[in-house]
Amino acid sequence: MPLATAPGNGITKLTNCRLVRGSDLVWDDIWVSSATGKILRSQSTFYDELILPDETIDLGGRIVSPGFIECQLNGAYGFNFSTVLDDMSQYVKQVRDLNRRLVQTGVTSYVPTVTSQTSHLYKKVLPHLGPSGRTRVAEDGAESLGAHLEGPFLNPGKNGVHNTKVLREAESIADLEEMYGAKNINPAVAGTALPIPVKMITAAPELGQMTKIIPELRSRGIVCSIGHSEATYEEASAAVAAGATMITHLFNAMRPLHHRNPGIFGVLGTANNNNDNDNNNSSRPYFGIIADGIHLHPATTKIAWNAHSAGFILVTDAMHLVGLPDGTYPWTNGGEAADHFITKKGAVLLLEGSDHTIAGSSIALLDCVNNFLRWSGASVPEALRAVTATPATMLGVQPAKGSLEAGADADLVVLDDETGAVEGRGRSLAVHQVWKFGAKVFDGASEAEAGEGL
């Protein structure tokens, strides 16, 4: 993978490009600094500080987007985050390798997801999955924004492929601290200037006292998400009122929409004009959508978008089989070692021995964006917002992430806009370059040239 940092002052000017700004594509230049890792205010840099860029790159009209943010990634390229190795230094190495490969897909930040597991596994892996961008080293690739714990406080009736033997109910915050390790979810116990490793927890709010626990988690900076749940509309609304701000893979592994009780989906609706739930005066939550064409029908995806576009977040729910050939692979499902198997056939992942139990996905985030563009009629800025500004806001990492404004981290994706390039597919975006902290870390053109020379 080509890695480059501009010499001299480290400033690069990208010109002749269309920038994603709000709902528009705006023709403008953008200046980035590999020294600070930030997007610069070009006018003041040039006119006030009299600084010229080291390099000017003509992008030929391509689109420049903020770096993509992936909110649900279980693993990739053969590595599963829910794994304990005899030598955990090898775990760290594999995470770093994954980060360097993942960034080439346009994902510059992500939330590594650990599924329902034993307490021992959580305590082993979480110290290695916390926020990793503080060193601001572009060559490290995609950075973790903190771990997403999908379980084990889930409803056994909506377990999906999660092992019901490890699922639990919580009666107090102490149950979560015992499960995950207090230092991993409690800043007071961690006793360090570094952030705690956990960023988000998915739980079924109808079980035990989980809804009452949500405010405590929120006070610690942890995003609370509703998922793998039989919650009624009333129970889901109570969770949102308590501080739940996210729904994990909407429609999947939850009570289906019913006209007399809309269930979790119902909290996206509103009977007034202020974007509040009609019964509790709380803002409507964000929600993840797996746009792989397998988890959801395209029409279902469009319905969710039309219901609450401001909360719409595209996720992959990708497993460690991303990037691997078809076959049957081991999977750690609630144990210390691989105790189940997943069969991969094309884009479809199924739990071995099952004809219909979907075991995550093997899709890339940009493919989700392209699917959504084809299905929804949304504009390119609207589709890209679902993997940039919206997840950044949900995770509380704006304005550093998800924006092309001056002062934001210079995490960029340069995209080819291949309108009509693929017959029958309409508009399609492709990664041309990726920039991390102001340095170019992937160049598709260079990769192609290198391949031709082999």
UniProtKB/TrEMBL annotation:
| Reaction catalysed by this enzyme | N-acetyl-D-glucosamine 6-phosphate + H2O = D-glucosamine 6-phosphate + acetate
- One biological-process term from Gene Ontology? N-acetylglucosamine catabolic process
User: Is Kinase among the key words of this record?
Assistant: no
| EC identifiers of the protein | 3.5.1.25
Which part of the chain is the Amidohydrolase-related domain? Answer: 63-436
Q: Name one GO molecular function term.
A: N-acetylglucosamine-6-phosphate deacetylase activity
Could you tell me which SUPFAM superfamilies the record lists for this protein? Composite domain of metallo-dependent hydrolases, Metallo-dependent hydrolases
The protein's UniProt keywords, in alphabetical order, are:
Carbohydrate metabolism, Hydrolase, Metal-binding
Q: Which Gene3D superfamilies match?
A: Metal-dependent hydrolases
Query: Known Pfam families for this protein?
Result: Amidohydro_1
Superkingdom classification of source: Eukaryota
User: InterPro entries, per this entry?
Assistant: Amidohydro-rel, GlcNAc_6-P_deAcase, Metal-dep_hydrolase_composite, Metal_Hydrolase
NCBIfam families associated with the record: nagA
Query: Record's family?
Result: Belongs to the metallo-dependent hydrolases superfamily. NagA family.
Q: State the protein's name.
A: N-acetylglucosamine-6-phosphate deacetylase
What is the native source organism of this protein? Lasiosphaeria miniovina
Its lineage opens with: Eukaryota, Fungi, Dikarya, Ascomycota, Pezizomycotina
